[in-house]
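User: Last request for today: this protein with adenosine-5'-triphosphate, please.
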Amino acid sequence: MRAYLSYFKLRFITHLQYRAAAWAGIATQVFFGFVYIMVYIAFYESGSASLPMELPQLITYIWLNQALLSLVNLFYKDQELFSLVKTGNIVYELARPKNLYFMWYFKIIGERLSKVVLRAIPFIIFLIFLPEPYKISLPASTGHFILFLSTMTAGTLLMTSIIALYPIITMHTLNEKGVVGIIISISDIFSGLVVPIPFFPKFLQTISKCMPFQYVSDLPFRIYVGNIGIEQGIEGLLIQLIWIIILMLLGYILMQKSLKKVVVQGG
Amino acid sequence: MSYIEVNHITKSFKVAKKKSGLKESFKSFFKRDYKIVEAVKDISFSIEKGEIVGYIGPNGAGKSTTIKILSGILTPDSGKCKVGKHTPWQDRKEYVKKIGVVFGQRSQLWWDIPAEDTFDLLKDIYDIPEERYLKTKEELVEKLNLKDIINVPVRQLSLGQRMRCEIAASLLHEPEILFLDEPTIGLDAISKQLVRDFIKRINKEKKTTIILTTHDMSDIDALAKRIILIGKGQVLYDGSLQKLKNNYANKKYISVNTKDAINIRTKGVLKKEKTKYGYSFIIDSKQLNISEFLNIISKKVQIEDVEIDNENLDNMIVNLYEDLKI
Ligand SMILES: Nc1ncnc2c1ncn2[C@@H]1O[C@H](COP(=O)(O)OP(=O)(O)OP(=O)(O)O)[C@@H](O)[C@H]1O
Ligand SMILES: [Mg+2]
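Assistant: Here's the final one, the structure of the complex with adenosine-5'-triphosphate:
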């Protein structure tokens, strides 16, 4: 375990060095936050039929989404892991007496968390000083907040289990575009990052429930704003845990398989 | 039973044939042609504990592939291999604790942080006890002269500095066997010397078994008594370097500085070439001994200067590759 934590720590520390990238990230996320919010405000003002979320709830959802983007976006490809596979530098990882799946798992979490931590303080200050109607609201209740923290933590593990699959699949296909590309497109839509799940038509919501993606961020964010009740939230947490187990098992097995017939690129 | 036993190892790669051109690309979208590259064909050898073996051969001969199989990274298609009591690719996790690998063309150090941070990580990966780790690290820092470079982000190091750190990183857990795949690639003369001396030293002090691939014959000359030569995936020679040298030792390179023209057709002169200051000859000293040769030409022309060289190892290897048609 200690070795895996060291991986986490080192990845975390390394990426804390990238301050400039963090500022650029904040700027883009603030920009996208505003764009989304303005589009939705216009949409709400046009006063169409019954909407599944109140406007302040939706605005808070969007800001959470932008602030925690590194923990919830599923279109992230860990360039370091991909280049390990594609250039053959993976030889060194294969020559270590530790499990490669967990090494990668902890590397990913380390990097993802460092991104959020670096951006957290400026982002929080920014959110506090936002004027109406762009303001972020407080959690629906203490209970909701605790459940938000739990599902957010589980969501982070779930996110890691999903994006850890990309480089593993690439070990088979040697090309990150094909299969991985398809998973990324699907996950992007069904994570609720573009449009929150409640806005989906009923049949798409049903399909979405059968996939792990909405449990990464849509669930915790909707718990925070009170769009999902405590009871339903706890149910969601259980589903998250089941998905984490399934996907980690899948990743682990796929990795074991790859190791048996891995072809290291280059001499 | 030797320490390392390799028996009839074979490994081939399946490579997709990529054809150029739009039409061919389109076709290959539906149907791929594959080509089988046999990287290693039926290789066998055995190595004793504490040996240094030079594993040589031309580009694409299968050296790196063999090293990867021996270090448990690749699984061969067929054949057996035992190192101590392990089969490398089967007991990978246990086995790799006992070996160290350096791939000269790749890096195990984290690019953005000092090498020492990677060392600390390796300490945890290999579960090295604190005291032991500090002692080994200190030793390596001293012997490889790393004091001023392990605290600098790796991306700021020169190739030679980085390679020394890479070698140290591979030895922190005090492996019994060390696989070195082109460890001196791109190093200047001083760094090369330092690395060679170091390799010799750990082999002597710790009885580390070392398998080394390189294209620099002076590495082999300095380090390995025994060489295994492979070409096109097969072992072509396995034996002492000296014996191989003796086969070629009768070849002498003689350059003669003179302003006059030389005509010589004696048996034993293998090659004659005009140079800037005179001529250079290659002679076979078994057929024509050197003093005889000099005698002949000194009678004909005014010699200003003579230089006599033995066949150097690089040329020897070129000739050998040519003789073996690899
Ligand atoms: N991942 C791979 N996919 C396809 N072919 C490969 C792969 N790795 C090696 N080969 C092929 O196997 C053969 C042996 O390669 P290897 O890297 O072992 O050579 P080498 O002796 O180390 O050469 P060099 O001196 O150039 O490093 C080559 O023909 C190479 O093209
Ligand atoms: Mg090679």
